[in-house]
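Hi W.,

Here's what went into the run:
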Amino acid sequence: AQKVTQAQTEISVVEKEDVTLDCVYETRDTTYYLFWYKQPPSGELVFLIRRNSFDEQNEISGRYSWNFQKSTSSFNFTITASQVVDSAVYFCALSAYSGAGSYQLTFGKGTKLSVIP
Amino acid sequence: DTGVSQNPRHKITKRGQNVTFRCDPISEHNRLYWYRQTLGQGPEFLTYFQNEAQLEKSRLLSDRFSAERPKGSFSTLEIQRTEQGDSAMYLCASSMTSGSTDTQYFGPGTRLTVL
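Here's what came out:
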């Protein structure tokens, strides 16, 4: 069974502060994929990043950066110089081949980020 | 590419009624997933189609739920004899087979309220 834990339920930061969202996962698969999605108040899940289990290189994309560490089963997400538009619920998710054809996603419960102007 | 679209966006129904939702995936995406999201939770997998074949169903998908994807294009999710516990956001996602990867793109969802 797969499990994703996002221990932070809600985080509030003042605009321009940096914020890190934590994600810890459990899986028995050796090949798997990790994702972050953003869900703004409008409700649509927006894909942010995908990493596979063999690629532990950290990644930076603009104000976003991701830290993947297999040793601690963590895939943390940092927003630098946060902006009000970053306010949303952020989900970490895990997928692995199910054996029946799909790569169904297992999501955490999400972290609600509020950026205060 | 236009994104994944879902209709209707909102549905209010009375307990015991049947409802049907539609999902139009990104064109040429051969994989289609349905998820359900309740308040304060992450989405949970319901079922998966590859082209027109329904290959996987979650145990969450009771006998009152049925999904189809005729001709491998759009998909419908029907709930018969709705119950208050069915109230949730129903999300559709599509993806394209690309080696061993699968990035799912989500639609805006259909929010169901059962009175």
